[in-house]
């Protein structure tokens, strides 16, 4: 790249950065009004239930309601015409002892985030989920996927992305301290400083620890972005060629299915489980067998304190210690077969020796836990 070209690029990036900051600010005001009564971003009023919520987002007639009817005991009206579903319809998927709420939603159209159709309500409801399924019609063009991503992006949902590694702290005095631990190749200090100024942030500490883009920096400032896992689900593969299906199926975060022909639906649920990062632990009373029928479902990264809270509120405050038997099926490190008599159930799959642990010990999927209190 020539020096002139490079300077031009930087100038463009700079002005574009300022413009983006302004736009992002207007959008945020539009979508997140300070008073409840002004309408704006509220979703459908459906009670959350179960261990996790999954929202179905897609254009009309891609088969969202058909999927709900196939995977849960709930029937949601399905039809060949568009906008069959007009409200949020919850169903429950029972899988590996967990109850996952699957939310069928009305189809959205381009411009949904700006308030077309019920789009605004749909995307706001999507924000309350733990996982988004973007449902697509495999017989239609790839463009649909990009259009949906734009709608979700416009309401601050970031799909399959991590929060940018930037520490941002407001102060009352002292000016701006800007530090970077990596070289910035997609934006520059001047752009960052002008964006801060355009947000009237004259006193703050900024530590950038990743090669971020200008947009990612604006996301950090706005602060209300939601980083959500997402699976792209291509339905109606019964109506496309094997070659086309093969190509779609290889994409990242993608599952191909046919609701009508019951193809690959089990695999979709498995993938949902993985994406949700659910962990289930069994509890065991002293002198009794672990209760394998009623696990406690938690998030990946949960600790013993979360287990306590999952049993009873008072447990964590009276906590003394916990015993944990790891599952042999999920923990290849433990090789010895089970010998502990009380754990010799029909499955024989737990480690023979318990580990004595405290509240901050992280639990793993299929652990057996006994809590001891004061
Ligand atoms: N070929 C084929 N058609 C399907 C499949 N799944 C659903 N359909 C058809 O697609 C049409 C729309 O299905 P719905 O489940 O009502 O779609 P929806 O996404 O809920 O649509 P809205 O509620 O209008 O947003 C129906 O005629 C279904 O029979 C599939 O796997 N293959
Ligand atoms: Mg529907």
From TrEMBL:
It comes from the Eukaryota. PROSITE patterns: G_OBG (PS51710), GTP1_OBG (PS00905), TGS (PS51880). Residues 52-277 form the OBG-type G domain. The keyword Metal-binding does not apply. Pfam families: MMR_HSR1, MMR_HSR1_Xtn, TGS. GO terms for molecular function: GTP binding; GTPase activity. InterPro entries: Beta-grasp_dom_sf (IPR012675), DRG (IPR045001), G_OBG (IPR031167), GTP-bd (IPR006073), GTP-binding_2 (IPR031662), GTP1-OBG_CS (IPR006074), P-loop_NTPase (IPR027417), Small_GTP-bd (IPR005225). Residues 277-373 form the TGS domain. Keywords: GTP-binding, Nucleotide-binding. PANTHER family: DEVELOPMENTALLY-REGULATED GTP-BINDING PROTEIN 2. NCBIfam families: small_GTP. This is OBG-type G domain-containing protein.
